[in-house]
Write a structure and sequence with these properties.
This protein is 29% helix and 27% strand. It has helices at residues 17-32, 83-99, 101-113, 116-128, 134-143, 159-167, 220-230, 310-315; strands spanning 2-3, 8-11, 36-39, 57-61, 69-76, 149-154, 173-177, 179-183, 188-191, 213-218, 232-236, 248-253, 259-271, 278-282, 287-293, 306-308. Strands 10, 11, 12, 13, 14, 15 and 16 form a seven-stranded mixed beta sheet that branches. Strands 3-4-5-6-7 form a five-stranded mixed beta sheet, sandwiched between helices. Strands 1-2-8-9 form a four-stranded antiparallel beta sheet, with helices on one face.
Length: 323
């Protein structure tokens, strides 16, 4: 229940997929942020005589000037589909996409043309970052190697489904959970965590292409036993698209130390046991750095994993300058 003095809100599950799709359209600005464009046009992709599918839409991510990304979007209700259906659907999207990249580009381009504001945003991005125009920008995105990325928007995700999607495919799959609550008087609240919130401008001022370090909060026992003793850190939830960027792991020792004190170079990242979390192995023993302590800005102490760059971290005088 969500409660305030005026209203009580209880979970009101979506009954049909179209209700979820309408909710995504309603919250898309808050859900995706100002540098991403959601296109909900449905058109079949795939080559004639091969696997063909109908994605629910596309998300153009312009958050990283050096690596704009296109996500193929699937909206699903957990209650309506078995785990195998969702996993197979996304796998088939990847096959259809690879067989029809030019068609995908033209679908996205046509969708943008029907939305002047979104076209203008893409055109501005293309001109400012060396792509010239929207056509070349989209061509650059879809034709690069390993360009397929999937985004699943679902009302509820269990650990089994998340594990399959995060660990069984050789392409990135991002997952957003979107739920609806309704009050006694008919008011609606939507529950979600914004897409890639941990690297959004609301959380950090660091550019995505700068990121090479993950900072984790560490209690004394885990810090001494695992980080310093075994040269590993485990059971970390990571966005699959962020994994290739992580070269270092730094530890923020919680109170009473309240500071980032050590950093380690990451050798490899593997799935942790049979879960949707990861374990990071180091190349060598961690190195002690000059302590980066809490600053004046409230909320800077990491409660969960946070991203930054090694360069920024080593120059920082306080946590205010790290994230």
């Amino acid at each position: 229940m969500l409660w305030n003095k005026q209203d009580n809100y209880t979970l009101a599950p979506f009954q049909k997929e179209i209700e979820l799709e309408q909710a995504v359209d309603t919250v898309k600005e808050a859900l995706f942020g100002s540098n991403r464009i959601y296109l909900d046009d449905k058109r079949k992709i795939g080559a004639k005589g091969k696997t063909r599918n109908l994605p629910d839409g596309y998300l153009i991510d312009l958050g990283n000037p050096k690596e704009p990304i296109l996500y193929v979007v699937e909206n699903d209700l957990a209650s309506h589909h078995h785990i195998k259906h969702i996993a197979v659907q996304i796998l088939e999207f990847s096959l259809s996409y690879e067989d029809s990249k030019l068609k995908v580009k033209n679908i996205v381009k046509e969708s943008l043309r029907q939305r002047p504001n979104d076209w203008a945003l893409c055109d501005k991005f293309a001109k400012e970052h060396g792509y010239g125009n929207v056509d070349f920008l989209l061509e650059s995105i879809v034709q690069k190697p390993n360009s397929f990325n999937a985004l699943l928007i679902i009302d509820e995700v269990n650990e089994e489904l998340e594990t399959v999607l995060m660990s069984k495919f050789n392409f990135p799959v991002e997952i957003i959970t979107l739920r609806q609550h309704q009050s006694d008087s008919g008011g609606i609240l939507y529950e979600f965590e914004p897409f890639l919130y941990e690297i959004s401008s609301e959380v950090t001022k660091i550019e995505v292409d700068e990121i090479d370090t993950i900072v984790v909060p560490a209690r004394e026992e885990g810090f001494k036993t695992e980080f310093l003793g075994n040269h590993v850190w485990w059971s970390i939830r990571l966005s699959k698209s962020m994994i290739p960027k992580i070269k270092y792991l730094a530890t923020y020792q919680v109170a009473p130390i309240s500071a980032i004190t050590h950093i380690a170079e990451v050798d490899r990242i593997e799935r942790y046991q049979n879960t949707n979390k990861y374990i990071l192995y180091f190349t060598d023993k961690p190195k002690k750095i000059e302590a980066v302590k809490l600053g004046q800005i409230k909320g800077k102490a990491p409660q969960n994993s946070r991203y930054t760059s090694k360069e920024r971290l080593l120059k920082a005088k306080s946590l205010d300058e790290v994230f």
